[in-house]
TrEMBL record:
InterPro entries, sorted: ETF-QO, ETF-QO/FixC_UQ-bd, ETF-QO/FixX_C, FAD/NAD-bd_sf
Signal peptide: none
Subcellular location: Membrane
Protein name (Swiss-Prot/TrEMBL): Electron transfer flavoprotein-ubiquinone oxidoreductase
Amino acid sequence: MAEIERESMEYDVVIVGAGPAGLSAAIRLKQLDADINVVVLEKGSEVGAHILSGAVLDPSGLDALLPDWRNMDAPINVPVTSDNFYMLGEAGQVRIPNFVMPPLMSNHGTYIVSMANVCRWMAEQAEGMGVEIFPGMACSDIVYGDNGEVKGVIAGVFGLEADGSYGENTEPGMELHGKYVFLSEGVRGSLSKQVIEKYDLAKGASPQKYGLGMKEIWEIDPAKHKEGTVTHTMGWPLGGNAGGGSFIYHLDNNQVYVGFVVHLNYENPHLFPYMEFQRFKHHPMIADLLEGGKRVAYGARAITEGGWQSLPKTAFPGGALLGCSAGMVNVPRIKGNHNAMLSGKAAAEAAFEAIGAGRSGDTLESYDTEVRTGAIAKDLKRVRNVKPLWSNYGLTASLVVGGADMWCNNIFGTSPLNLKHGKSDAEATGKAADFTPIDYPKPDGRLSFDRLTNVSFSATNHEESQPSHLKLKDASIPIDVNLPQYAEPAQRYCPAGVYEVVDNQFVINFQNCVHCKTCDIKDPSQNIVWTTPQGGDGPNYPNM
């Protein structure tokens, strides 16, 4: 095939992804130099369309970036007023007193927000400073320079033929070149995955670990609504089958975020994370809260959970990994947006200094140093042992030893433990024959819902004539390997019902995909590769 000709545009900095990390980088660059040329490319139909987070926002990142944000009409107006933590049994619950929790676990001074709306507001600030933001522009590939550095990205490819080839009606997209390229794609970004492998950025780090976060927005009875209340739970229904827990956040307008996280290192391939979430809502405490209310939105997203041990090198020739593209979530706090903002700010400062010195295309070592020695490092290092304790020794050890370890870090500023992660989440999957299938109750349509009904509440849409963005390295593996050995877990781990086995055929309903990336992470054969569909496709989250 003849080489595809594309137009190109030149910028000082090209940013992939309009999440909190990418937008923070764009804003900081313009703060430092109003004349610097910055472009942000977003695959969602609009900024915020693909943003899904809990979210209780630690404002430390925003304080560092925009100190006056409280006077800038930011959609951050529900301070946390009450903090609760429960251990659930099937029929009851026990509250863990706040005083036994390490101080870093407190949500004092934080806010319940829609990160989708926060990002929309951040985009307005960036555009007001002269940043160019192009939504609906999926970045499908990297452009490399003569010395092997990242030079830019290919964005805006539309109208591919069903087999993935270029036809007469295909728009080939553009090359956007930058002196530096920032990848802020979120968890398991497709371009980030490429550069981590190409430059061996994960050398010496533990395998990255992940969770699957599922979330519904509910409008509940005003008599039960307690604005500013934050509740977290552990225990039932997961028990010993998987790590994870829930979050319940009361925002304004009688709305509640109800979320459930399942750690993806679970062994039993019969586990059905989505159905665990639906079963959770039938716990008496949760059912009483939701009874008489209605679900108004649904979504799902993978979460980086490896923490400090799994952090790859964050700078590479020609660019940097920001936020969850590298993995900066503080797992016990279930917070990463503040670190994403801090990473964007730090990357911008490193690039500004480099461009001012006449450099381009080199490795921004000062950015990686800041990530590993500054506020992000301090936040991640003090909780570094909680996740490996949970993964290797279970919930009780995580609560007791992990809690003691966090107290030790709080009091002495350090801890004698430096635990590592072992297997990847894909490798952790056990053989189906070694585990008992789990019998899940049928959704009742009132508190619990089937997957396809819930997916309709994510406003997900993909142009059906395009090739599937979910690629199989080997089309025979799902039926010949995964089905006999693992009962083909893609049927269950996907929270959107994308994968089915029908008449001994593996069916991919890519139109349902909510871009959570779980399949790319959890497939035991590592046979599924998530790539970007054409720009604007996917979920359209209003208030996630």
